[in-house]
């Protein structure tokens, strides 16, 4: 028999310890770091989008304010335009009323002037009619009637402000009040002197109604 000492002593099982290989990174830590980096990147993009949206919102608000201001200006302009249009309409209406009133007054003045002229000449017309009635029966009365008619017409003209234009032989020719229809060589008269009056002229103030028709010496 073998000695117990010679019996083999049982071996203790060896623990296998994996030795870390020098220089090999921790896989879990690397994944975690990579994930954190991705999160930071995503957060940065989100912030950028947020800032962009805020900027766009601010721009929209600014444009909205400008639009509101433009609408307010447009409303003000429209109000001013409406006011001006109303004033123009009122002015045109006033002018039209003034034109009608002036035309009416002008017609009234013209009618009054005509009535005044006719009234001033009616006595002469009556005298002329009476003179004609006595023309055959009493020629002398007819002549007196005509002379009276002439005087009454002159009085009527005077009442209307009508005056006879001065024109007689020897008077200087006035082209503004005389109408020369003939010329004559006369040594006894100076140049541009009235030699003869063919028809009397009349005027009211500075307004010539009819020029005196005359013959002028050269």
TrEMBL record:
Residues 1-14, 32-42 have a biased composition (Basic and acidic residues). Residues 46-101 form a coiled coil. Residues 1-42 are annotated as: Disordered. GO terms for molecular function: adenyl-nucleotide exchange factor activity; protein homodimerization activity; protein-folding chaperone binding; unfolded protein binding. Its main location: cytoplasm. Pfam families: GrpE (PF01025). Gene3D superfamilies: 3.90.20.20, Head domain of nucleotide exchange factor GrpE (2.30.22.10). It is found in: Cytoplasm. Keywords: Chaperone, Coiled coil, Cytoplasm, Stress response. One of its GO terms (biological process) is protein folding. One of its GO terms (cellular component) is cytoplasm. The keyword rRNA-binding does not apply. InterPro entries: GrpE, GrpE_CC, GrpE_head. The keyword Chaperone applies. Homodimer. Belongs to the GrpE family. Participates actively in the response to hyperosmotic and heat shock by preventing the aggregation of stress-denatured proteins, in association with DnaK and GrpE. It is the nucleotide exchange factor for DnaK and may function as a thermosensor. Unfolded proteins bind initially to DnaJ; upon interaction with the DnaJ-bound protein, DnaK hydrolyzes its bound ATP, resulting in the formation of a stable complex. GrpE releases ADP from DnaK; ATP binding to DnaK triggers the release of the substrate protein, thus completing the reaction cycle. PANTHER family: GRPE PROTEIN, GRPE PROTEIN HOMOLOG, MITOCHONDRIAL. This is Protein GrpE. It comes from Ethanoligenens harbinense (strain DSM 18485 / JCM 12961 / CGMCC 1.5033 / YUAN-3). The gene is grpE.
């Amino acid at each position: 028999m073998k000695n117990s000492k010679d019996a083999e002593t049982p071996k203790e099982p060896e623990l296998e310890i994996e030795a870390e290989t020098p220089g090999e990174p921790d896989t879990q830590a690397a994944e975690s770091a990579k994930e954190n980096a991705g999160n930071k990147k995503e957060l940065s993009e989100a912030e950028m989008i947020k800032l962009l949206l805020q900027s766009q919102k601010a721009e929209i608000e600014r444009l909205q304010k400008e639009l509101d201001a433009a609408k307010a200006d447009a409303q003000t302009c429209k109000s001013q335009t409406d006011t001006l249009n109303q004033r123009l309409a009122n002015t045109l209406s006033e002018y039209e009323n003034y034109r009608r009133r002036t035309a009416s007054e002008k017609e009234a003045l013209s009618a009054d002037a005509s009535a005044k002229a006719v009234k001033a000449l009616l006595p002469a017309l009556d005298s002329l009619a009476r003179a004609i009635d006595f023309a055959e029966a009493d020629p002398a009365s007819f002549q007196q009637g005509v002379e009276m008619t002439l005087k009454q017409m002159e009085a009527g003209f005077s009442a209307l402000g009508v005056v006879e234009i001065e024109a007689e032989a020897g008077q200087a020719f006035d082209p503004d009040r005389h109408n020369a229809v003939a010329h004559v060589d006369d040594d006894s008269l100076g140049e541009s002197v009235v030699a003869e009056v063919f028809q009397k002229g009349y005027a009211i103030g500075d307004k010539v109604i009819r020029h005196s028709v005359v013959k002028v010496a050269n």
